[in-house]
C-alpha cells in the first residue's frame, strides 16, 4: 500500500512584501547528479560534468544516451552536486531540461574545455576506450547540449511504502508555451 501526496512547485507562493525570494542554488563542484525519469516515474541518476552560465546549467552528452531519450519523453529532471561515483553532496533541486544540437551551442564546448582541461586530457580518453569496449562502438556518436533551467516543476507526487521510506518522486510539468 502506498500513500501519495502532492507538493506545490518551489516559488509558487507569491512573494510577500518586504521578503525577498530565496536565491537559486549555486552549483560549484565538478560533478552534477542529473536525475531523469522513466515512463513509470522511477528516477535514474547519472553523474555528469557541467558548467553554469547565465542562470542555466549546460551538460554535453551523447545524443543516443538513455538520459537524452528520457528527457525527450519527459523534460522534468532534478539536479544536485555529487561526487564522481554519484554520491549526493546537496539536496536535489527540480528543474527542466531542453536538448540542443551541439552546433547550436558552441559556447558550451568552450566553457567545458576551460573547466575540465586536465580531465579531458587524462580521464576522457580512458572513459571513451571503456565505452567502446563495453558497447562495441566503432563510430563516434553525435553530441547534444542539455540546457537545464532550475525551478520549472509544477508539482511533485511523492509515494512512500508502509515503512515510511521514499519509494518514488514523480514530477509533473506543464507544457511550455510556444
Give the fraction of residues assigned to helices: 10-25%
The succession of helices and strands, N to C, reads EEEEEHEEHHEEE
- How many individual helices? 3
The fraction of residues in strands falls at: 35-45%
Largest sheet report: 7 strands, antiparallel
Mean pLDDT score = 77
Structural class: alpha+beta
Shape: globular
Largest sheet: spatial strand order:
3-2-6-7-8-5-4
First CA to last CA: what distance? 40 Å
- Cα-atom radius of gyration: 18 Å
Ranges where pLDDT stays below 50 over 5 or more residues in a row are: 1-15, 174-178
User: Would you report the number of β strands?
Assistant: 10
Write the layout of secondary structure elements.
Elements (H helix, E strand, L loop, with lengths): L2 E6 L22 E7 L5 E7 L1 E3 L2 E7 L3 H8 L2 E7 L10 E9 L4 H10 L1 H19 L7 E8 L4 E6 L5 E7 L6
Antiparallel strand pairs: 1-9, 2-3, 2-6, 4-5, 5-8, 6-7, 7-8, 9-10
Structure description:
The chain has 178 residues and is α+β, with helices and mostly antiparallel strands. It contains 3 helices and 10 strands; from the N terminus they run E-E-E-E-E-H-E-E-H-H-E-E-E. It has helices spanning 66-73, 106-115, 117-135; strands at residues 3-8, 31-37, 43-49, 51-53, 56-62, 76-82, 93-101, 143-150, 155-160, 166-172.
Amino acid at each position: 500500500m502506498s500513500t501519495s501526496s502532492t507538493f506545490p512547485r518551489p516559488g509558487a507562493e507569491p512573494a510577500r512584501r518586504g521578503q525577498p525570494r530565496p536565491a537559486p542554488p549555486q552549483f560549484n563542484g565538478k560533478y552534477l547528479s542529473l536525475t531523469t525519469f522513466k515512463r513509470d516515474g522511477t528516477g535514474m541518476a547519472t553523474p555528469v560534468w557541467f558548467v553554469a552560465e547565465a542562470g542555466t546549467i549546460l551538460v554535453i552528452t551523447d545524443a543516443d544516451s538513455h538520459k537524452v531519450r528520457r528527457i525527450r519523453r519527459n523534460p522534468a529532471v532534478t539536479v544536485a552536486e555529487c561526487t564522481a561515483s554519484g554520491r549526493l553532496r546537496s539536496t536535489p533541486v527540480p528543474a527542466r531540461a531542453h536538448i540542443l544540437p551541439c552546433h547550436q551551442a558552441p559556447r558550451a564546448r568552450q566553457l567545458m574545455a576551460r573547466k575540465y582541461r586536465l580531465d579531458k586530457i587524462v580521464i576522457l580518453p580512458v572513459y571513451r576506450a571503456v565505452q567502446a569496449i563495453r558497447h562495441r562502438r566503432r563510430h563516434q556518436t553525435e553530441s547534444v547540449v542539455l540546457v537545464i533551467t532550475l525551478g520549472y516543476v509544477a508539482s511533485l507526487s511523492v509515494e512512500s511504502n508502509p515503512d515510511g521510506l521514499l519509494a518514488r518522486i514523480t514530477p509533473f510539468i506543464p507544457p511550455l508555451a510556444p
